[in-house]
């Protein structure tokens, strides 16, 4: 199995092919016989190989939306389609990363990455190749025999990323995966994720509350409105790749950051005026 086959499943990327299609997705929760509309209507069309971030006011339903795409939460109405198949439950075509690492503390790093592949009963040779490839991709092959307790927070998240990528999902869903890290480690992980994404070319839907993180990583930033959320605006991030950390000082970067901040500030002002 070649590196390209491991990373991309052997299939070329089609620039115009939809990876994720969201059609009129709505979510209503019922609590104590009271209906709470979390998502009013979201429509998106994410093309294969794109990195798309979602930002919005606190409590607007960003994570709820991502979990609906992942199949972990049922939608009230609408359609979620991943590579032509409707989503009704979790599946191996979607790899999910959370804010905290999801490693088994009693397993060494390589065994953590291999565990899901063993459950799928893949051939031992293929499991070994995938584990080695993805641990090298995230720069942690030399730590393959370490326990998670012996790793830093950033290293744990890199192992978690290797674990998800080893499944070879068609899309990556990431729910503030760097939110618990300190600012320096967070910037390092953003740069690492950009490098890994450029090599794997997975389609990514990334939820964050950090505007600069969204601008640095993304091809597009989706700005959600206050709850019940809709898509307020989709902003194309036309910055050259690969992006160095220094790009954060550029006028274009700051302009994007300020535009998104203004959109979110508008939503916050509306909430304050209405007493929400």
Automatic annotation (TrEMBL):
Entry's Gene Ontology molecular function annotations: ATP binding; ATP hydrolysis activity
Key words, A-Z: ATP-binding, Nucleotide-binding, Translocase, Transport
Record's keyword annotation contains Translocase: yes
Membrane-crossing residue ranges in chain numbering: none
One Pfam family this sequence matches: ABC_tran
SMART domains for the chain: AAA
InterPro entries assigned to the protein according to its UniProt record, in alphabetical order: AAA+_ATPase (IPR003593), ABC_transporter-like_ATP-bd (IPR003439), ABC_transporter-like_CS (IPR017871), ABC_transporter_ATP-bind (IPR050166), P-loop_NTPase (IPR027417)
Annotated ranges, domain ABC transporter: 20-251
Keyword Nucleotide-binding in annotation: yes
Gene3D superfamilies, per the entry: P-loop containing nucleotide triphosphate hydrolases
Superkingdom of the source species: Bacteria
UniProt name for this protein: NitT/TauT family transport system ATP-binding protein
Lineage of source species: Bacteria, Bacillati, Bacillota, Bacilli, Bacillales
């Amino acid at each position: 199995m070649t590196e390209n086959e491991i990373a991309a499943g052997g299939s070329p990327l089609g620039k115009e092919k939809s990876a994720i299609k969201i059609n009129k997705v709505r979510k209503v929760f019922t609590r104590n016989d009271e209906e709470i509309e979390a998502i009013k209507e979201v429509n998106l069309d994410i093309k294969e190989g794109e990195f798309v971030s979602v930002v919005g006011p606190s409590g607007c339903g960003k994570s709820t939306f991502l979990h609906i795409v992942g199949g972990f939460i049922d939608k009230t109405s609408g359609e979620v389609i991943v590579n032509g198949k409707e989503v009704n439950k979790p599946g191996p075509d979607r790899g999910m990363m959370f804010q905290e690492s999801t490693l088994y503390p009693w397993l060494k790093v390589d065994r953590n990455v291999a565990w899901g592949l063993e459950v799928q009963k893949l051939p031992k040779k293929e499991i070994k190749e995938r584990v080695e490839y993805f641990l090298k991709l995230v720069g942690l092959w030399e730590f393959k025999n370490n326990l998670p307790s012996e790793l830093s927070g950033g290293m744990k998240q890199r192992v978690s990323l290797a674990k998800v990528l080893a499944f070879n999902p068609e899309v990556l869903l990431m729910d503030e995966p760097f939110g618990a890290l300190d600012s320096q480690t967070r910037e390092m992980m953003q740069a690492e994720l950009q490098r890994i994404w450029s090599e794997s070319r997975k389609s990514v839907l990334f939820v964050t509350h950090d505007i600069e993180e969204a601008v640095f990583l993304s091809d597009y930033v989706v700005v959600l409105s206050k709850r019940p959320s809709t898509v307020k605006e989709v902003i194309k991030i036309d910055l050259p790749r690969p992006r160095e950390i220094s790009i954060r000082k550029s006028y274009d970067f700051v302009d994007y950051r300020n535009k998104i901040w203004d959109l979110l500030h508008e939503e916050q002002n509306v909430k304050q005026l209405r007493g929400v």
